[in-house]
């Protein structure tokens, strides 16, 4: 165990988190490491300034160490065609812009070196074995002995270039199923030469890379290894192999291990919001018995309180917070100053980060649309404060109100309900989406500290806005300069015979517990909300799974001699029999998130939900829901009666726009955002982005 240099005065709020950490020649001011995330800005030279600004903002926010997204050590190792790499002196010059910006902002930055292997979206790719990638289309070339040695050299060369570019450390990507991990695992390494077969042979590639890198960089230059300590794939590594590899890494000159969990193709979710916080820290803690170099824990660590608890237990030296630093670049400084209630906590939704990365879009954050747009979406102080009315305290209205107030505008927020959050508060009641409550907490606090006047239980009319009687102010001061209409959406009531039958209820009524729900339920509509509601209906009233139950549900093995630690999932039985029905033919849940959709689809399947596509809704009566079912070609295949106690309607939403015309016609400056603007394809990502953009657009 490393013994950190004791600070003169321990931080009163998070003493362990704010203790410096020594990694070889580098002293981190605190234990918060911003883990590597590919943003899409790495790949194009003209995005260098944007990338520098993105990292500099996080350095100013107090991150102990920033690790860049992965830069390839060769063209064959690129994540995407023409993706970011570190292979020549021109690239060194480009990267000095980044390292300079971070250093000027008072931060430290490490470059992650990656070879994607079979995970490359790249026609030139090479890989350890013959097994094709299940996530990318291009075929790869199985590496020859000559290519292997060349690849080892490229790691050394790139490490040397990174040091010359001013990086404070490098991280070798050895996890998540990328090339190094592909060599380590029998799952992807079917070689019969000296690079495959026995544990020693499979580990040889990484050992040689470490030796080569150590040869090429200065003795005190930190080399961090991102090591997969739980592959969660069949034929993954056993614990003994992982422990042995960690010991070898230390022996051959790795200065810290940043632990990594799960491959991209793993059947166990590892970072989505339904994964319990810190679910995998125990794996990192177990490694403590094997090595004495610093260990960094990662995955679903999103608050300083949780991080402090981990560090206090004394078996881990630092925590990796990647997405939490996207959501709030000032997380470390806020924690340091005892203002952790002001942190915009990452909710693990993946909607604007990983989901974007996997479809080649620039990464941002659902909660913080400025992420990746630091130079273009700015919220500078206003020179002339305006009196702004924001109507509706859903995500759109909250983002608009807080951002406008932060800029110095005088903001009043009107909400018809008794609390803030809008539809998002319903989302927070779904099992596995409890993190969404953090967003409500964040906005509650931000409204307070930014002096927004909040009117709860106040459904305002256009007249009250126009004559100023809605305002807390009096006389001329009550008149509004701008009105932001963020009145959101209401559930759509489809036109089905019997829709007013007492057994029918909206998703809001079901989730908010306004109505009793029977044991057999049909859900109309299999969109995002239909899936969420179905999951809600299949579990009991206190849905949060403890870690043990969650591991059972997803088949995480307690027996670490099992390769990859995966076993047969043992889900808890459903508390209700649920039918999930949609009109479209074909597979359900196609529109769910790229990286989270499979988890929802698997969760519904494991609860035995009957999924019916291609249905038309004929009638709802005392017998239940009468449907006609069609095949993919639209031919009728039969009629059915789903004998249920209740029907829950999740058939999309409609905009609430009753204030738009009267206010616009009256000539007042109006801005319509979120669901009020457009109900189709609405999500909190768009709502918050529009709210932030409207605040940025005010003079
Ligand atoms: P709303 O949330 O509808 O808020 C509008 C607010 O305006 C309401 O509070 C309403 O009371 C108020 N209002 C209306 N008229 C007036 C008036 N005249 N005066 C005062 N107040 C008024 N999105 C995601 O991105 N990811 C998810 O995982 C996700 N999961 C979801 C799960 C569920 C179960 C549900 C129901 C929604 C989910 N959503 C999710 C959708 C997300 O919550 C909505 O897209 C988002 O809330 C829309 O924001 P909004 O501010 O435009 O509208
Ligand atoms: P949605 O995804 O558009 O789904 C609406 C569903 O209702 C569809 O399955 C549609 O399918 C059905 N439908 C539409 N009109 C109907 C009608 N007249 N009669 C019967 N069925 C009808 O919308 P949503 O589920 O309400 O979700 C709203 C938004 O919240 C979505 O845009 C989503 O992005 C967001 N959200 C996201 C997540 C997430 O995990 N990322 C989770 C929840 C919600 P058919 O037409 O085939 O029947
Ligand atoms: Fe976290 Fe969601 Fe933002 Fe990604 S988009 S950083 S998961 S809050």
From TrEMBL:
<dbReference type="GO" id="GO:0051536">
    <property type="term" value="F:iron-sulfur cluster binding"/>
</dbReference>
<keyword id="KW-0560">Oxidoreductase</keyword>
<keyword id="KW-0479">Metal-binding</keyword>
<dbReference type="GO" id="GO:0046872">
    <property type="term" value="F:metal ion binding"/>
</dbReference>
<keyword id="KW-0411">Iron-sulfur</keyword>
<keyword id="KW-0285">Flavoprotein</keyword>
<feature type="domain" description="NADH:flavin oxidoreductase/NADH oxidase N-terminal">
    <location>
        <begin position="17"/>
        <end position="342"/>
    </location>
</feature>
<protein>
    <submittedName>
        <fullName>2,4-dienoyl-CoA reductase</fullName>
    </submittedName>
</protein>
<dbReference type="InterPro" id="IPR013785">
    <property type="entry name" value="Aldolase_TIM"/>
</dbReference>
<dbReference type="InterPro" id="IPR001155">
    <property type="entry name" value="OxRdtase_FMN_N"/>
</dbReference>
<dbReference type="GO" id="GO:0016491">
    <property type="term" value="F:oxidoreductase activity"/>
</dbReference>
<dbReference type="InterPro" id="IPR023753">
    <property type="entry name" value="FAD/NAD-binding_dom"/>
</dbReference>
<dbReference type="Pfam" id="PF00724">
    <property type="entry name" value="Oxidored_FMN"/>
</dbReference>
<feature type="domain" description="FAD/NAD(P)-binding">
    <location>
        <begin position="387"/>
        <end position="668"/>
    </location>
</feature>
<dbReference type="Pfam" id="PF07992">
    <property type="entry name" value="Pyr_redox_2"/>
</dbReference>
<dbReference type="GO" id="GO:0010181">
    <property type="term" value="F:FMN binding"/>
</dbReference>
<comment type="similarity">
    <text>In the N-terminal section; belongs to the NADH:flavin oxidoreductase/NADH oxidase family.</text>
</comment>
<keyword id="KW-0408">Iron</keyword>
<keyword id="KW-0288">FMN</keyword>
<dbReference type="InterPro" id="IPR051793">
    <property type="entry name" value="NADH:flavin_oxidoreductase"/>
</dbReference>
<dbReference type="InterPro" id="IPR036188">
    <property type="entry name" value="FAD/NAD-bd_sf"/>
</dbReference>
């Amino acid at each position: 165990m490393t013994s950190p240099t004791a600070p003169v005065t321990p931080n009163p709020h998070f003493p362990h988190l704010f203790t410096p950490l020594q990694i070889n020649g580098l002293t981190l001011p605190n234990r918060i490491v911003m883990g590597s995330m590919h943003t899409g800005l790495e790949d194009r030279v003209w995005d260098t300034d944007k990338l520098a600004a993105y990292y500099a903002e996080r350095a100013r926010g107090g991150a102990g160490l920033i690790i860049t997204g992965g830069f390839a050590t060769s063209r064959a190792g690129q994540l995407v065609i023409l993706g970011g790499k570190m292979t020549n002196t021109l690239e060194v010059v480009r990267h000095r812009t980044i390292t300079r910006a971070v250093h000027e902002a008072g931060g430290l930055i490490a470059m992650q070196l990656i070879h994607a292997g079979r995970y490359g979206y790249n026609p030139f790719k090479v890989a350890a074995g013959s097994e094709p990638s299940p996530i990318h289309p291009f075929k790869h070339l199985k590496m020859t002995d000559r290519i292997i040695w060349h690849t080892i050299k490229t790691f050394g060369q790139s490490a040397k270039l990174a040091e010359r570019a001013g990086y404070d450390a490098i991280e070798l990507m050895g996890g998540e199923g990328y090339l190094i991990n592909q060599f380590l695992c029998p799952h992807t390494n079917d070689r019969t030469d000296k690079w495959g077969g026995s544990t020693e042979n499979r580990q040889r590639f990484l050992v040689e890379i470490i030796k080569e890198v150590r040869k090429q960089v200065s003795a005190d230059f930190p080399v961090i290894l991102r090591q997969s300590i739980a592959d969660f794939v069949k034929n993954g590594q056993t614990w003994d192999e992982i422990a042995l590899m960690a010991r070898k890494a230390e022996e051959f000159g790795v200065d810290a291990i940043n632990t990594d969990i799960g491959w991209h193709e793993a059947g166990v979710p590892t970072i989505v919001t339904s994964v319990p916080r810190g679910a995998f820290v125990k794996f990192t803690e177990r490694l403590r018995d094997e090595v004495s170099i610093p260990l960094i824990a990662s995955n679903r660590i999103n608050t300083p309180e949780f991080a402090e608890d981990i560090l206090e237990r004394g078996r881990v030296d630092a925590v990796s917070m990647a997405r939490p630093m996207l959501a709030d670049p000032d997380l470390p400084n806020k924690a340091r100053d005892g203002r952790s209630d002001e942190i915009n906590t990452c909710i693990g939704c993946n909607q604007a980060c990983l989901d974007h990365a996997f479809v080649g879009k620039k990464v941002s954050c659902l909660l913080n649309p400025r992420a990746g747009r630091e130079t273009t979406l700015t919220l500078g102080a206003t020179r002339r404060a305006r009196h702004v009315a924001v109507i509706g305290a859903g995500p759109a209205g909250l983002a608009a109100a807080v951002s406008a107030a932060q800029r110095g505008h005088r903001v009043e927020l009107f909400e018809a309900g008794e609390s803030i959050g809008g539809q998002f508060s319903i989302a927070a009641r779904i099992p596995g989406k409890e993190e969404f409550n953090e967003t409500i907490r964040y906005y509650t606090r931000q409204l307070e500290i930014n002096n927004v006047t909040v009117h709860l239980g106040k459904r305002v009319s256009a007249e009250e806005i126009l004559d100023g009687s809605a305002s807390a102010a009096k006389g001329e001061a009550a008149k509004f300069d701008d009105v932001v209409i963020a009145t959101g959406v209401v559930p759509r009531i489809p036109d089905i015979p019997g829709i007013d039958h007492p057994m029918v209820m909206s998703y809001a009524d079901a989730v908010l517990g306004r109505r009793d729900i029977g044991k057999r339920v049909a859900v109309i509509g299999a969109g995002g909300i239909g899936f969420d509601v179905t999951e809600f209906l299949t579990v009991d009233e206190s849905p949060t799974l403890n870690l043990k139950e969650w591991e059972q549900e997803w088949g995480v093995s307690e027996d670490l001699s099992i390769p990859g630690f995966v076993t047969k999932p043992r889900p808890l039985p459903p508390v209700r029999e649920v039918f999930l029905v949609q009109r479209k033919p074909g597979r359900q849940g196609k529109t769910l998130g790229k990286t989270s959709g499979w988890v929802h689809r698997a969760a519904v399947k494991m609860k035995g939900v009957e999924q019916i596509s291609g249905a038309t809704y004929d009638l709802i009566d005392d017998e239940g829901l009468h449907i006609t079912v069609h095949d993919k070609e639209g031919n009728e295949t039969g009629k059915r009666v789903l004998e249920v106690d209740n029907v829950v309607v999740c058939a999309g939403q409609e905009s609430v726009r009753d204030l738009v015309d009267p206010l616009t016609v009256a000539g007042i400056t109006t801005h319509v955002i979120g669901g009020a603007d457009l109900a189709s394809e609405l999500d909190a990502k768009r709502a918050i982005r529009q709210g932030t953009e409207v605040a940025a657009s005010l003079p």
